[in-house]
Design brief:
Blueprint (H helix, E strand, L loop, with lengths): L1 E5 L3 H10 L3 E5 L11 H12 L7 E10 L10 H7 L1 H8 L7 E11 L3 E12 L15 E3 L11 H7 L1 H14 L3
Parallel strand pairs: 1-2, 1-3
Antiparallel strand pairs: 3-4, 4-5, 5-6
Helix pairs in contact: 3-4, 5-6
C-alpha cells in the first residue's frame, strides 16, 4: 500500500515514513486550514477539500501546542503563530507567566475511501530558551514530560517514541495492520 501524505513539511514526512508499515509519498500541495475550535475540525475540512484533488489513499496531520499559562494559545493557531512570532515570540509571551505547562496535540486524518482520525498528545512544558538542532517548529522549546531535553535535542527516533505525532501515527499504523 502507498499513502500520500499531504504536507509541505519534509520533517513531518520523515518522521511519519519511519513509523508506518507502508510506502509514504509526500505531496507538497497547499490546502485551506480553516480557523476552527479543534484540530479535528481543521483536519476534517482538509480531507474534504483534498478528496477530489488527490488520488488514492491520503493523509494529513494537524498539530497544536496548547500552553496552560497562555490559556491554550497558540493551540489551533500554532502554525500561524509560528510563522508570525516564532519560538522567540512564544518565549517572550511567557516571560512573566507562572505556568509553562503545555500539551502538544496531533490529529492525523486518513482518507482511504472513508475518513478516519487518529489523535495523540504529549504533556510537557515550554523551555525558558531555544535548545537543540533537530526537529522543526516548536521542537526547540517543548520539553516532554519525564525529560529534561527539548524535542530538538532528541533524535527523531527518541522523539517519535514520546511525541504527540508518534502516538497518533502508532494508532494509524495499528489501523493499517488490520487492512487486507
Amino acid at each position: 500500500m502507498t499513502i500520500t501524505f499531504v504536507t509541505g513539511n519534509s520533517g513531518k514526512h520523515r518522521e511519519v515514513s519511519a513509523m508506518l508499515p507502508c510506502r509514504v509519498v509526500q505531496h507538497d500541495v497547499g490546502y485551506p486550514e480553516i480557523q476552527a475550535d479543534s484540530l479535528q475540525e481543521v483536519a476534517r475540512y482538509g480531507l474534504d477539500w483534498l478528496r477530489p484533488r488527490v488520488d488514492g489513499p491520503f493523509m494529513l496531520e494537524d498539530a497544536g501546542l496548547f500552553i496552560d499559562g497562555l490559556e491554550g494559545f497558540p493551540g489551533v493557531y500554532s502554525a500561524y503563530a509560528y510563522r508570525t512570532i516564532g519560538n522567540a515570540g512564544i518565549l517572550r509571551l511567557l516571560e512573566n507567566v507562572e505556568s509553562r505547562d503545555a500539551v502538544f496535540r496531533s490529529v492525523v486524518g486518513l482518507d482511504d475511501g472513508e475518513q478516519h482520525f487518529f489523535t495523540g498528545e504529549c504533556p510537557g512544558s515550554v523551555a525558558t530558551d531555544i535548545r537543540g538542532e533537530h526537529g522543526f517548529g516548536y521542537d526547540p522549546i517543548f520539553i516532554p514530560e519525564g525529560s529534561d531535553r527539548t524535542f530538538a535535542e532528541m533524535t527523531s527516533a527518541e522523539k517519535n517514541r514520546c511525541s504527540h505525532r508518534g502516538s497518533a501515527i502508532r494508532k494509524l499504523a495499528s489501523y493499517l495492520s488490520t487492512l487486507p
